[in-house]
Amino acid sequence: MPDIGIISSTIAAGVLLGGILGLTALGLSIVLGVMRLVNLAHGDFLVVGAYAGLFFLQFSGIDPVLGLPVVALLLGGLSIPLYRFLLAPLADRGAEAQMMTMFAVSIILENIFILVFSADTRSIARDYATYPLTLGPVTVPLIYLIGFAISVTVILVVHWLVSSTAFGRDLRASAADAQAAATLGVDVKRVQMLTFALGAACAGVGGTLIGAAFQFSPSSGGPYLLNSLAVVVLGGLGNVLGALVGGVVLGALQSVGGLTLGDGYRDVVGMALFLLVLAFRPEGFLAQGRT
Questions:
Q1: pTM of the model
Q2: Would you list the DSSP string of 2-45?
Q3: N or C: where does the chain have the smaller number of CB atoms within 10 Å of the terminal CB?
Q4: Which residues contact 138 (CB under 8 A, 6 or more apart)?
Q5: Domain count for the chain
């Protein structure tokens, strides 16, 4: 049986990693909550963020953590024409048309990654990515703590944006009843466009943090998407703070599962939890509030 130091370090690492998972799922959650769109390209948006962080470091020499605002603006800006030209024209044709469009975008992005970057596995190499942080019997990678702090900060900022601003009021109204919101003067299409951009920006930041903590490749989007879906189901559809809670729960359980069953079973534990919650509480544990 592992000693207490290994167990406590595993749980602590899982909780910290879970904060990053919460951020990576946040964009998927708010887009699903407002647009009723399962963005099947969300995992590839995360990979775009990872590549953006890598090449921002290589071409500017600036640490990608300091360049996170640039990555967020890049992903948010790129997502606006994607929404205008691909998603907005399909708004009246049902969620299935938009979902299949994003599936096609996912395939196109993955092939672009392979064409431009090759199929090689990459990582954002920084000293703090492998530096161990020790506090008593607990030892965790420093990048997990940095990523957790940044993720919580971004999630709290998005929570404030959704709950305390005019845009957030329009977003909540559009999520509750888009037709009624439009009748009251809310520009629903503009709200959906900005929500899609906000989701992409969050994915970009989360992808850079994931790229600093782990290796990634053009095909990494699929597993990232599955983890994000699990977090959304755990935390509740469109629930900003629920994404953080769901990520922490998933990260901790995956770490414990990897310790007890073997590292190869980490994702199995997460998917099993995803299916159980989907079967018995599909609205999520924290689905009553969406802010």
A1: 0.92
A2: --HHHHHHHHHHHHHHHHHHHHHHHHHHHHHHHH----TTHHHH
A3: N
A4: 5, 8, 9, 12
A5: 1
